């Protein structure tokens, strides 16, 4: 069993896509084992995306991610990391396969509705960034 961290980003929340994103994950065998709505401030968004510090999109990305509430969740299942990424589609919605969340709902590469961890180490860091052990409910 693998765990990953997903976020319905502020654009997804304002477009009423929280349910749609969770439904897509659940229908595809992923279990939501942790869930909360948060509003990141700029520093928290910068900490979350620290690996991207220095990149040209860092300032804009962290401003956007601190512009309103997000829903963060821990997903569990076999191959949870790759399954989540497959359901989201490519980061840039122009490259995302038809039927994926980003192809259907994203506005652009920044406002791309949903985030998912890109590997086991990132997942461990990202889950720990938002959740403590008592907030994860695994059978
Ligand atoms: P996410 O999966 O949350 O991981 C990092 C985010 O940075 C990514 O989704 C995009 O929203 C954003 N991002 C990545 N590349 C670019 C880019 N070239 N321009 C703007 N935003 C980007």
Describe this structure as you would to a colleague:
This protein has a 4-stranded antiparallel beta sheet with strand order 2-3-1-4. It has 7 helices and 4 strands. The N and C termini lie close together (about 10 Å). It has helices at about 10-15, 20-25, 40-50, 60-65, 80-90, 100-105, 120-130; strands spanning about 1-10, 30-40, 70-75, 115. With about 140 residues, the protein is α+β, with helices and mostly antiparallel strands. The protein is globular and about 40 Å long. Helix 3 crosses helix 4. The longest helix has 11 residues, at about 120-130. The structure holds adenosine-3',5'-cyclic-monophosphate.
Question: Assembly type of the shown chains?
Answer: single chain
Give the SSE order as H and E letters. Answer: EHHEHHEHHEH
Taken from the alpha-carbon principal axes, the silhouette is: globular
Q: Write out the strand line-up for the largest beta sheet, numbering strands in chain order.
A: 2-3-1-4
N-to-C span: 12 Å
Number of strands: 4
Which parts are unreliable, with pLDDT below 50 for 5 consecutive residues or more?
Answer: none
- Average pLDDT, all residues: 98
Beta-strand portion reads: 15-25%
Category from helices, strands and their pairing = alpha+beta
Task: From the structure above, extract its key features.
40% helix, 7 helices, 139 residues, binds adenosine-3',5'-cyclic-monophosphate, alpha+beta, 4-stranded antiparallel sheet
């Amino acid at each position: 069993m693998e765990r990953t961290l997903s976020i319905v980003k502020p654009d997804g929340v304002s477009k009423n896509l929280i349910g749609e994103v969770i439904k897509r994950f659940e229908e595809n065998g992923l279990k939501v084992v942790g869930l909360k709505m948060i509003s990141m401030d700029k520093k928290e968004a910068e900490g979350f995306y620290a690996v991207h510090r220095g990149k040209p999109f860092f300032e804009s990305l962290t401003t956007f991610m601190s512009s309103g509430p997000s829903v963060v969740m821990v997903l569990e299942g076999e191959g949870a990391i790759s399954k989540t990424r497959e359901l989201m589609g490519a980061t840039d919605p122009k490259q995302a396969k038809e039927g994926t969340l980003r192809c259907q709902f994203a506005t652009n590469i920044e406002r791309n509705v949903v985030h998912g961890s890109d590997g086991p180490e990132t997942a461990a860091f990202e889950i720990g960034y938002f959740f403590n052990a008592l907030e994860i409910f695994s059978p």
